[in-house]
Backbone:
């Protein structure tokens, strides 16, 4: 405990305290913002050049959930019973642009830690010490939650969604043949949305910390949150089928319930204001001797034979 206390004191004296607001003029703040944005864009561009050389490999991995299911017990991908599905492109530049799209997304994801660092360096001088102690861990946890949502979608949600949709078309007598651009857009959209869904508990925790909501308030609107989850899922899902809507809405509502628990633990304490002694409260009824009686304020609630296998794992088992 003594070592931990000394570490906290060192963190306070050496890291947090020196980062006080320098009282910079507005133009200096704008110049600093321009410099940091330029650095972030340059880093993302450099990473994009690297990811573009590996775009074909990245696209192969992105196609893995189409004809495979991830088995947690074996920690391996297992081929499904879907027929061989050829990929086609319907425009001359379609194959190129889907590589650019995938490489760009991975570049942004890989460069996110640096972008967050530049954002932190720009924002932190204007924050109080207690705000820095909260914002720093919150940003790190939110980034981890986004990555967790992307991985959860890739390993579990996307294979089930694709298997259901392709199987439905095959059972209806249609021949599966996918546009590579349409498939890449579908997969990337699913990954992005689930990354955002995993931020729901943190968003609710932040609102509770700011005093905007609390656990009783969230519990009262539980059924509306359930309905809202399905409405949001109906808008965000790239297909109108109810299966994919449920795949997106149910985790969203589950995270709403997690947010209720989190709000109960981490809700910020509201500061109540009481009238000073001898101070009359406006609108209070007068007593018999002409004095005013304070009225208590109400609390504010306020293509190898066209099978897409796992890269490096050989063919169909």
Residues:
């Amino acid at each position: 405990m003594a070592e931990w206390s000394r570490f906290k004191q060192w963190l306070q004296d050496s890291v947090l305290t020196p980062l006080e607001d320098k009282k910079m003029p507005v133009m200096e703040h704008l110049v600093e913002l321009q410099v940091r944005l330029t650095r972030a864009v340059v880093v993302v561009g450099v990473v994009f050049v690297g990811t573009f050389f590996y775009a074909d490999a990245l696209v192969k991995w992105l196609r893995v959930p189409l004809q495979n299911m991830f088995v947690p017990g074996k920690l391996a991908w297992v081929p499904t019973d879907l027929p061989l599905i050829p990929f086609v492109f319907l425009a001359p530049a379609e194959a190129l642009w889907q590589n650019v799209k995938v490489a760009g997304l991975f570049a942004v994801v890989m460069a996110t830690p640096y972008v967050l660092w530049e954002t932190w360096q720009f924002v932190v001088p204007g924050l109080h010490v207690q705000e820095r102690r909260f914002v720093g861990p919150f940003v790190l946890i939110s980034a981890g939650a986004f990555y967790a949502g992307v991985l959860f979608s890739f390993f579990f949600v996307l294979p089930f969604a694709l298997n259901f949709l392709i199987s439905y078309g095959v059972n209806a007598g249609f021949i599966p043949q996918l546009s590579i651009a349409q498939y890449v857009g579908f997969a990337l959209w699913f990954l992005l949305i689930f990354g955002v869904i995993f931020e729901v508990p943190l968003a609710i925790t932040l609102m509770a910390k700011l005093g905007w909501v609390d656990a009783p308030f969230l519990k009262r609107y539980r059924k509306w949150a359930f309905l809202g989850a399905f409405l949001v899922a109906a808008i965000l899902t790239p297909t109108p089928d109810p299966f994919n809507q449920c795949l997106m809405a149910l985790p969203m509502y589950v995270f709403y319930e997690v947010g209720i628990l989190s709000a109960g633990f981490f809700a910020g304490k509201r500061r109540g204001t009481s009238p000073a002694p001898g101070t009359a409260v406006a609108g209070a009824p007068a007593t018999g001797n002409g004095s005013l009686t304070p009225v208590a304020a109400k609390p504010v609630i306020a293509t190898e034979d066209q099978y897409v296998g796992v890269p490096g794992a050989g063919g169909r088992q």
In short: The longest strand covers residues 68-71.
